[in-house]
Amino acid sequence: MPEISEGRITLVVFFYPNNMQKKGMWQTITDPETMAPSAPLGRMLHDEQLNLEHEKEMMAPQWEQELSALQQLGFSPSDAWTALRTAAGDADAAAELLLLSGAVPSSAAEVEEKQRGGRFQKRLHATSSSMSPPTPGPVPGTSSTSTELPPTEASTVSEDEELAMRLSLMQEPEAQTMSDAEVAALVMQLEELEAPEVDPSLLVAQFQEYQDKFTLDDAEQWNGQGDLMHSPFSREHLSLEKMDPTTLYSVGHGDLLEKDFFEMLQCHSVRVLYDLRPTDFRGEFHARHQRFSLSALRGQCRARGIFFKSMPIGRESAYGTLAHIRSDEGQHTLVELAWQAKRKRTAFLGSQELWNEDNRQVIADELVKAGHQVLHVRSDGSTEQHVPGTQYPDWLVREEERLKLLEKKRQAGEAEKVSKSRLERSSEAVASRLARPTEEVAGHLDVGL
């Protein structure tokens, strides 16, 4: 094997199941190592022969007349008995079976030829003994087929032609009676041989589908820390359309109390909450109620065992929800959201209590168009399935234009100066900011000498 440091090797292994009935039936015919008649076959034939002798002793007095009639027609006793056994004692049906099977009755000419014995018989015996080894005796439970030459007119067939015909008949294998299991095994083998060949292009497409599935599974290997789409391999192979369909929940807090909000989540056993509320140009989110600020929600979710993560969609620097959702960052956020929903009950959060008054409708449209299901949760715990194609409100459609114009004014210094409200200057707001955990900011300082 060559040394491999990266990539993937696909190994296709063709195997034969051990416990299939077909293999068991095949092994009753031949030994898998030597391909000789197996011991189960010998025992089966021996049991069949014993059963046949017992049936002959039991049924011979009953079928004596029918057996005698078939023998008078020229059929051998063993062939006549087998046909009668198959036809359940019906002599006419047995005679028809014998004729269909190719058992030709002996004629007076054949009997006379057997008794005649002459130069041709001696010559045939000498030739057959020198060309072929001794023929073994018949297998128990099988019926022997006569190799005598069919009756023909002596005037039309020469001795050489007759000799050639007899030699060809002697070389034909003797017909053997097979059990039901042997016949079933041979039929299944013939069906496999006669099966139509598979189109190579279909095999290539099938293996390619397997390869894509393995690649997708590798791209979804994530420990839940950081961002799922931070890996270049995941960004290359993962997309919202390729992921398995999942069900996500859409929730909005509005003016709900903290208790009512988390009871709403508890109604649907939500264990993962993604905060997709848009932020301002500074990357900050200002909630109408302190209980729904980022720091407060993070602490409340941690206390209740709910995974909380903020990944805003529609911030001002991305020019609103419609523009942000079309970007790679917005699509990567939705992929991570679907990845979480595949494993746990996941919901995404909006600011308004009603979904059609919030930017959640844009997020829900993208998820549903990709094949996923979105359920909007009302304040009473009931749900409404999202149907794509809803017309967006004017403030959402004109959001990108408004934010671009606001950015130009800000750059030109024409934007109004943001002033803090009385509520933000209160002692409660200052204490809340001071109680926030310290955030470490990694920076790089260049000092010119």
UniProtKB/TrEMBL annotation:
> Taking every annotated instance into account, which residue ranges of this chain make up the domain UBA?
61-101
Task: Return the annotated region ranges for Disordered.
Answer: 106-160, 409-437
Low complexity compositional bias, start-end: 140-156
Q: Where is the composition biased (Basic and acidic residues)?
A: 409-427
InterPro entries (alphabetical) = UBA (IPR015940), UBA-like_sf (IPR009060)
Q: What protein am I looking at? A: UBA domain-containing protein
Q: Species name for this entry? A: Durusdinium trenchii
